[in-house]
Amino acid sequence: MASNYEDVSDESGTDFRDSDTNSQSKSDSDSETPQQACRYYNKGHCRNGKQCPDLHVCKYFLKGNCRYGASCRLSHNLNSDRPSAQKNRERRSRDRTTQRYRERSRSYSSDSDTDSSKPYRWQLNLGSGWMDVENDYVLEAQFSRPNTKGIRIFNTPCGALSIDFTRMRILKKDNLRVRRKGSKYTEWLWYYRGNHGWYQFGKKDAQGSVSPVDSSRLESEFKKSSCGTVQFTINSTDYEIRFKDMCQKNLSTSHKRRIRRRPKYVSPQVGGVNTLTNMFKTMSTSSPTKTPLWQFSGRGGNWHSFKPRGSSCTLSSADIEAEFQRNPQGSMNFTVNGEQYMLDFAQMIQTSQKTQATRNIRRVKQ
């Protein structure tokens, strides 16, 4: 759907806010202009009858000072004597509010929706159902960065859209929605805002300090209760993490720092391979798949398969395939006759660590 993007970091833009301020239009609010008593009804007759937009009740009762009380000839019942048009209008307003709440709840909690075919899937609803975002790995890459508050997408049918990652909403477009469908294999990382940027819990900050709580513990506690808290101590100072407010609080000074929960980025190629591997694991053994064959180029342009040869070679095609499945952009080392070699999957070459001589390698599907 969209292919052009612009990220919005903490240092740029004013539309993206960390607090969930209300940016909806007036129609998105539950507040209504207070209804007034119909002056014609209070004079004795209203020709609009049940279609009157005003209340058919005693105006003094509405103010709380009717001197006739229960003997008043005018109605003192706000519910039964309320015009049907007004009742219908209020019912429709409540229905719209309920529907908007349900839609926002689904959109905001969308990262809990799982998608077995991909590690993640970003989608937009422009009014006619959910549609996949083209090249959504760009959104995922930006979303995985804790310092990125949002992203602007260009070339959509609705023009440029600004997505707020914190609230998982499209800004200034109340009728449009965004969601991220994740995977149960997603690894979530937790960050806090330090004096010089964002730092991951459990890792060293700019001063070399390490938080005693790490991402895995925070994620575990968060899954138990998204409104819970976690307390820890650093250098005799007590801190509390509040998931509901997404902040870390110094219990001595009450100073607060923002925290963020972002997924560990999985590239499209790695994600595809991992997803394929998981699918193979769930398949029946009655339909086995053959392991691809790995080969290196020799003299005369001939190709030779990697095979373990006693103590001379320590590597087989199956070993290479297993490492390739784990990280298609990575590398691995092996030994031949005591000499060290490295396979580079990204460049598909084999390099001698001693002479730096290279050979081409290839992956052949059987």
TrEMBL record:
Residue ranges crossing the lipid bilayer per the database entry: none
A Gene Ontology biological process term: protein ubiquitination
Pathway, per record: Protein modification; protein ubiquitination
Cell membrane as UniProt keyword: no
Family annotation (InterPro entries): ARTD-AVP, WWE-dom_subgr, WWE_dom, WWE_dom_sf, Znf-CCCH_4, Znf_CCCH, Znf_CCCH_sf
Record field: compositional bias (Polar residues): 21-34, 77-86
Gene3D superfamilies: 3.30.720.50, Zinc finger, CCCH-type
Compartments where found: Nucleus
Pfam (any one): WWE
PROSITE patterns (UniProt xref): WWE, ZF_C3H1
Gene Ontology MF annotations: NAD+ poly-ADP-ribosyltransferase activity; NAD+-protein mono-ADP-ribosyltransferase activity; zinc ion binding
GO cellular component, one term: nucleus
Zinc fingers classed as C3H1-type: ranges: 32-56, 57-79
Keywords per UniProt: Metal-binding, Nucleus, Zinc, Zinc-finger
SUPFAM superfamilies membership: CCCH zinc finger, WWE domain
Sequence segments annotated as region (Disordered): 1-34, 77-118
Family to which this protein belongs: Belongs to the ARTD/PARP family.
Name this protein carries in UniProt: Protein mono-ADP-ribosyltransferase PARP12 isoform X2
